Amino acid sequence: MEHEHLYRSLRLPKRPKGKIVLLVLDGIGDITSSCSKQLTPLEAARTPQLDELAKTSVMGRLTPVLPGITPGSGPAHLGLFGYDPLETQVARGAIEALGLGIELQPKDIAARANFCSIDTKGIIIDRRAGRITSELNKLLCKKLQLIEKIQETEIIIQPGTSHRFVVVFRGGNIEGPLSDSDPHTEGEPIRKIKPKFSSIKTNRAVSIVNQFYQKALLLLQEERPANGFLLRGISHTPKIPTFPERFELEAAVIATYPMYKGLAKLIGMKALESNHGIEGQFKQYVHSFDAFDYFFIHIKGTDIAGEDGNFEQKVSVIEEVDKFLPILLKKAPQVLAITGDHSTPVSLKAHSWHPPPVLLHSPSSGSDKLSRFTEINANYGSLGIFQSKFLIRLMMANAGLYDKFGA
Amino acid sequence: MEHEHLYRSLRLPKRPKGKIVLLVLDGIGDITSSCSKQLTPLEAARTPQLDELAKTSVMGRLTPVLPGITPGSGPAHLGLFGYDPLETQVARGAIEALGLGIELQPKDIAARANFCSIDTKGIIIDRRAGRITSELNKLLCKKLQLIEKIQETEIIIQPGTSHRFVVVFRGGNIEGPLSDSDPHTEGEPIRKIKPKFSSIKTNRAVSIVNQFYQKALLLLQEERPANGFLLRGISHTPKIPTFPERFELEAAVIATYPMYKGLAKLIGMKALESNHGIEGQFKQYVHSFDAFDYFFIHIKGTDIAGEDGNFEQKVSVIEEVDKFLPILLKKAPQVLAITGDHSTPVSLKAHSWHPPPVLLHSPSSGSDKLSRFTEINANYGSLGIFQSKFLIRLMMANAGLYDKFGA
Hints:
Strand content of chain A: 15-25%
Number of helices of chain A: 14
Radius of gyration of chain A: 23 Å
Structural class of chain A: alpha/beta
Order of helices and strands of chain A: HEHHEHHEEHEEEHEHEHEHEHHEEHEH
Number of domains of chain A: 2
Shape of chain A: globular
CATH topology of the largest domain in chain A: Alkaline Phosphatase, subunit A
CATH class of the largest domain in chain A: Alpha Beta
Largest interface: A-B, 29 and 40 residues
Oligomer: homodimer
CATH architecture of the largest domain in chain A: 3-Layer(aba) Sandwich
Low-confidence stretches of chain A: none
């Protein structure tokens, strides 16, 4: 990892005096558009608490991966956690499994799966099996779960929404990555799975997955329309140096969605439960204040509103965060960063490459003398545009955790 | 060295038409704080000359090393001189020796030293020997200097302030780096010195240093409380490609403090003497105008004021620079950069990671249409935030010293 050694050598052997909090408003970044009177949701929202905080903070914008790259939630968050998202990749199967609440263990091989329809010759005629209902999906997954084990490998099946599910292969000394069985087009047969790199472990994995396929297709034989399934993004869970190991910080995640909780747990953060929405998340932070050095608080609503193209809703989630912010600020962290993992512009209804704004506040942060936390103001901040993976370093510097480099 | 080859291949074979001047106000960067009415010293200072210059200059902010890294003076200046501070490191012993005015030669091994107190069993009971006076320090160093040579290696001892001094080992085909003899804690004996990498030269160095230790401890035997000493940061002076070699510029340093003068000399700059403070430094530049292409002028007062937490003093040094600036501008350099090696915020009383602002002026610099040179204005500048090591390249580009890259 680039520069890792330098930062590590300068890490002072102590815990921070106060708390370090990363507050992620998922997909917060946005762009102006004619539908919203040329305002972004951050600009349109009434945010008296954030405005006050902005005045004594510094700002900038984050490049989650590289210019023009639209990140998925996995790499975007790994960047915020200080991992280079190009060096530390979590396969899609694993991300999907975490999203469905499966507690992945190192070496687990996870695969994204979806039911499909095949004809009598095994040719795919509908890659999504007519988008069957989630109820039918559940029933079919239960059926597939009759396959509990193949040789030494445990099989774990978890239904998602509509035609989507996840298969996890656990144990038996197997390793990925494996190729997709999905030809990504109709009119072709289900593809044979191959190892991406041939080794004893990947060859063993291929054999297990293919045996699973045979048994599973038999179980689905009489079903209509979901008489087949496709696997994608098949890989083992990488062994990632944990966050507490790398940064010497005891860390907790306060998230309501399984994916973010799962990803944070994968890198060694302790998951704290919370109810009652944003208010409950901030209250959980206060409640657990003494037990951790670092808190990752994840707010999902901004991203959902962005994906739905719902401007008013995105504004409303921001205002809700602002309303409950005093709970967090009353038990003030020493260092607070507020940002998004990426942008999810309302007008695009999707993740985008636009750099999310970031606000950083601490007693030694200084101030950029900007009156509000918005995308445009963030352009004028002293942090400039920088890669997400450096945010944790700035937060740790603000917490006084690094020694001077050289005399 | 990264990008070195490209820049070198584009360097036009000529000397600049005018002069290139790097004016360093040490530790100039600052942050707002409630103690100073939310103004930084640059904002609070009355600087009519700088203001005028700002209007026809471009601005930005510098990252001395990496985000969140607080640099020492050595790496911070090496960056401004165009060296990658991670690739070109000067050990602490060498920096300390330069600071005490020792003219280091390549291959010299320098060590930071401090007197300590040991008990009859050789256990350290006070790592700083009760912080003895500088006068006693001088006397003790004189005594130790009785050891003039060990085998082929010359011994040079230079007292600093209080309990601190420097030992330089010159000649005899020796090499560092060596481990510290300082256990960094009391209640333990002085540590045996070892090579960090074993080789004929480092093993020879260890033998010389240990022989020196034996003789020196005998000389101190009857002293109280300073009957021992500890060595740290023991390394040879790296062979650095000189500044005139790398950039094809005849360079001079006008600095009042030995460390900066020494570091500049180490990379091949000619040291010019100057008296009468900042006025004298600018006059020396005018006086030596014809003899050099590049001048590094180092103003120390801003850093001292920052370290002392003295806001008024920092403002006053900036105003003094402003007052005498016409001397420099009357004999105008073709390219002038004004910046700090790092920030030394008054409210932190120490070096910090905050990016110092930089101003660049030349007939071809363009203007960012900013009315003053301040941290906040620098955020709006066209130079953005960039690594210090690229500043020399921008200055040389402004001096017309680089050919076009590609057709």
